[in-house]
Specification:
Residues 74-255 form the Plastid lipid-associated protein/fibrillin conserved domain. It holds the Pfam family PAP_fibrillin. The structure is a single chain. This protein is an alpha+beta fold. The protein has 2 domains: 5-52, no CATH class; 63-256, Lipocalin (Beta Barrel). Helices cover 36% and strands 28% of the residues. It has an 8-stranded antiparallel beta barrel with strand order 1-2-3-4-5-6-7-8. Helix 4 (59-81) packs antiparallel against helix 5. The longest helix is centred in the first third of the chain and has 23 residues, at 59-81. The radius of gyration is 31 Å and the shape is globular.
């Protein structure tokens, strides 16, 4: 006999909870009382289904597990998708760009931080840019010498919440000058203006060493215009590992701690 409810299918479980457990058993007895030769295949079929189909887990348990798993999958897919893109600065094929931006939008839908500017300590520290829609293309790239002998390195962002300041540090490597390395640093202040938005103001910029400054001197304003963060930024996703921002110029940024 079937005594354990965990082996009942959904309809049989419902019968049991109404005090009619099992309905097919009671009905079978009535039918046999009328005619012992009447087929009971339908009742046997229900018995077999009960034996092989355990009751499904509550939908809330399934959805909760799926939500956590989905976020991790999206993050992994996004980090894999942005590999080899040079942070997106020199352009990305349209198909790959669309794929990356779909993953970013999907990630934003799972944002665990509703009001990031009210908890800025969670974004404090150093971040590395993985991908952005800032572009250095065509004549702009040629003028900055970024086609052959000047190479972009890491793009880092250091956020000091106590001082309400952020520094963007772009590393460069110049292969034509004995592997000269240097950096371009832009300091800016910020202040929250909504639960998700900060207003950003440019403070100063520094290009070191002097050899790198001389190299970019003619096009220094162009270089600054590319990376100047002044304006506003919406923090659209933030957790312990990744952060996504969208600015007033239509750019999107993905950074990893």
């Amino acid at each position: 006999m079937l005594q354990s409810k965990q082996w009942l299918c959904c309809s049989c479980q419902e019968d049991s909870e109404r005090g009619q457990w099992p309905r097919w058993k009671a009905n079978a007895g009535k039918r046999n009382a009328i005619s012992t030769s009447q087929p009971i295949a339908r009742d046997l079929g229900r018995i077999q289904r009960c034996l092989v189909a355990p009751r499904a887990a509550p939908s809330s348990e399934v959805s909760a597990g799926t939500s956590v798993r989905s976020l991790e999958v999206i993050k992994e897919e996004l980090m894999e998708a942005v590999k080899g893109t040079d942070m997106g600065i020199f352009g990305v094929p349209s198909g790959k760009k669309d794929h990356i931006e779909r993953l970013i939008a999907e990630l934003e839908e799972h944002n665990p931080t509703d009001s990031p500017t009210e908890n800025l300590e969670k974004v404090a520290g150093e971040w590395t840019l993985l991908y952005s829609t800032i572009k250095i293309l065509g004549s702009k790239r040629t003028k900055l010498g970024l086609r052959e002998f000047v190479k972009l390195g890491n793009f880092r962002q250091i956020i000091d919440v106590d001082q309400s300041q952020a520094s963007n540090v772009i590393d460069f490597r110049v292969t034509g000058l004995g592997l000269l390395t240097g950096s371009f640093t832009i300091d800016a202040s910020f202040k929250p203006v909504s639960p998700t938005r900060v207003e950003i103001k440019f403070l100063k910029s520094v290009l070191v060493p002097e050899q790198l400054l001389l190299l970019f001197q003619k096009n220094y304003d162009l270089l600054l215009s590319v990376f100047n963060p002044e304006g506003w930024l919406d923090i659209t996703f933030s957790d312990e590992q990744l952060r996504v921002g969208r600015d007033d110029k239509g750019n999107v940024f993905v950074l990893r701690r």
